Amino acid sequence: MRTFYIETPNEEIRSQIIDKINNLNKPKGSLGRLESLAEQICMIQQTLSPALTHPCHLLFGGDHGIEREGVSVSPRDVTWQQMRNFTKGGGGVNMFCRQHGFTLYIIDMGVDHDLTDNPIIINRKVARGTRNFLYEPAMTDEEFQQAIEAGCEMVDRCYDDGCNIICMGEMGIANTSPSSIWMHLFGNIPLDECIGVGAGLNNAGLQHKREILHQAVERFNAQDITDTEYTIRYFAGFEMVGAIGAMLRAAEHGMIVMVDGFIMTACMLAASRLYPEILHYAVFGHCGDEGGHRRMLDLMNAQPLLHLGLRLGEGTGALCAYPLIDSAVRMVNEMNNFQNAKITKYF
Predict the structure, then answer these.
(1) String of b and e for 61-85 (b: at least 16 CB within 10 Å)?
(2) Sorting pLDDT into bands at 50, 70 and 90, what band is 203?
(3) Tens of pLDDT along 232-242?
(4) How many degrees, rounded to 5, is the angle at CA 169 between CA 193 and CA 4?
(5) Is 334 helix (H, G, I), strand (E, B) or coil?
(6) What letter does residue 136 receive in the DSSP assignment?
(7) What does the angle CA 195 – CA 263 – CA 85 come to, to the nearest 5 degrees?
(8) Which of 44, 155, 220, 286 could be bridged to 317 by S-S, CB 3.0 to 4.6 A?
(9) 342 pLDDT tier (thresholds 50, 70, 90)
(10) How far is 231 from 225, CA to CA, in rounded Å?
(11) Are 133 and 240 in contact (CB under 8 A)?
(12) Alpha helices in the chain (DSSP H)
């Protein structure tokens, strides 16, 4: 895997940032979470006057071999059908990107369908879906590297266009399964507490999913291999590895990385096990309703901006949180301070 050089933001400017926020004409701390968010953004950009430029959203698609075991209520055909739907502007992600002015890129990382006839979908297909991790690693090392590089390439494209805030989303039936396993393995949380209903399993379906994932983890553990990179690629989907590469590259560029729901939080968790410094750049959009999401966020001491009961994926929860990020930046840049407003500082 390529080496990423992710810097921890320089702490020398923090006291100036806090002083500026505290001296805006408001009671100290009265804007709550917006104040800590503004501090984080100022630290990422190393400035007292932050800016959000050319926001981009990367939507990665891929299919999973584990879907063949009936761990999802939705068939894999939904992946390619939704990918085509996104190109017509009909998805939730399209609506929120339009609303908040995000440039949307739709990337085929490993959909089990030929999408090359659609010029809007960027073809970075590694293979037509991963292997079934119940029996073998989901991807080879070479495939893993290819997916990482594709994610990096997409971020570089956005960065070169002036983007400094980026969001990742996914489309991949059955991708809650690898996410749950990563949560279990990287967080040392009992597996059953990490597994949720995904797209809407009933009780019998949920029990079947648990049984399948327990078998997969037992076979993986029997290998007695604890390497983080191997653990990631053993269970991942190509869309998930693409997102991990994108997250790491964005942090390397010093960009704000907006994190969506359960799947993308799992990708950030995996990325942080490779490069802990990435968490300085991560803004967690929301806490969803998928089982265990709150506990996975806690593993990274993450403070999500929203809790709206979302579990759509696609990056929609992070996109919904963007106006709060914008508000935090506007607060720092546009609110007057006590001295200029000629208001007595009352704390």
Answers:
(1) bbbbbbbebebbbbebebbbebbbe
(2) confident
(3) 999 999 999 99
(4) 90
(5) helix
(6) S
(7) 120
(8) 286
(9) confident
(10) 8
(11) no
(12) 14-22, 33-45, 77-87, 92-100, 141-160, 176-187, 203-221, 228-235, 238-252, 262-274, 293-299, 316-334, 338-341
Amino acid in position 118: N
- Give the separation between CA 51 and CA 39, rounded to whole angstroms: 13
Q: What backbone torsions phi and psi does residue 275 show, to the nearest 5 degrees?
A: -140, 90
Using the structure block, give the residue that is written with the tokens 């073809």.
123
Indicate the Cα dihedral angle 178, 133, 224, 186, nearest 10°: 0
User: In 3D, which of 271, 233, 243, 262 has the Cα closest to residue 131?
Assistant: 233
How far is the first Cα of the chain from the last one, in angstroms, to the nearest whole number? 52
Active site residue 11: no
Q: Using CA atoms, how far apart are residues 87 and 111, in angstroms rounded to an integer?
A: 15
Residue 57, CA distances (Å) to 25, 81, 222, 343 in order: 34, 20, 39, 41
Tally helices (H) and strands (E) across the chain: 13, 6
Determine the residue type at 322.
Y
Which helix H or strand E contains 257, and what residues bound it?
A: strand 256-259
Quickly tell me which residue has 């709150």 as its tokens: 294
Catalytic hit among 35, 277, 314, 334 = 314
